[in-house]
Amino acid sequence: MSVKSIMIVGVGGQGTLLASRLLGSALLSQGYDVKVSEVHGMSQRGGSVVTYVKYGDKVFSPIIEKGEADLILSFEQLEAARWLPYLKKEGHIIVNTQQIDPMPVITGAAVYPEGVLEAIEQAGAAVVPVDALGLAVEAGSPKAVNVVLIGVMAQKMELSKETWLKAVEENVPPKFLELNKKAFHLGYSHC
Questions:
Q1: DSSP letter, residue 156
Q2: pTM of the entire structure?
Q3: Could you give the angle at the alpha carbon of 146 between the alpha carbons of 1 and 83, nearest 5°?
Q4: What are the angstrom distances between the C-alpha of 110 and each of 42, 102, 113, 116?
Q5: Assuming Cys at both sites, which of 10, 130, 169, 183 could form a disulfide with 144, CB separation 3.0 to 4.6 Å?
Q6: Phi and psi (nearest 5°) for 6?
Q7: Average pLDDT, integer, range 49-55
Q8: Is 2 exposed, middle or buried (0-12, 13-18, 19+ CB in 10 A)?
Q9: What angle do CA 168, 50, 39 make, to 5 degrees?
């Protein structure tokens, strides 16, 4: 199998690191060579967070260059726009429709731009918009946005639903397991 590249992008505190653990766990369980690199930046202050994941028969580096990502899983619209140049021409970008104001917007120095998703689509990207926050609330907690998005992404990949659910079971604390399984199912059935 040729090497595939996935980027998980978002804002600190959204659960991108759990999402990358779920992805890595699911891929490893199927025998893929997996390399992961996480860049946190000012993640604890709401800054940008990106995780590079490469998998295949043999992977030498986790770093993804511009135009290499087969899929981008974005937890926020502006982060989708920021990382769009990394998407392959035939790649997909799954975008949580939630808007999280960056610090310049919070302080009044800037305004959150309108039409972000439309601009991404006009750039030629295959966009899958998801109200992941709404689905997470339906599952029982707004904190389950990450697992909802993993469920949506699972539809775009060659791994079985059971493989993903096993990864959820292995990586989520028991007291949150049923909530996260419900979040995964809601995301998985979104498309």
A1: T
A2: 0.92
A3: 65
A4: 19, 9, 9, 15
A5: 183
A6: -130, 135
A7: 93
A8: exposed
A9: 105
Q: Which two tokens stand for residue 128?
A: 């899958």
Candidates 72, 74, 37; CA nearest to 52 is 37
Measured distance CA(144)–CA(139) in Å, rounded: 8
Q: Which of 55, 127, 56 is nearest to 87 (CA)?
A: 127
Tens-digit pLDDT profile for residues 78-114 = 999 999 999 999 999 999 999 888 878 888 998 999 9
| SS3 call for 17 | helix
CA dihedral angle for residue 179, residue 144, residue 65, residue 26, rounded to 10 degrees: -10
Structure tokens at 171: 């990586």
Share of the chain above pLDDT 70, in %: 95
Q: Which residues of 41-63 are buried (b: 16+ CB within 10 A; e: fewer)?
A: eebeebebbbbbbbbeeebeebe
The domains located in the chain, with CATH, are 4-188 (3.40.920.10)
- Which amino acid is present at 74? S
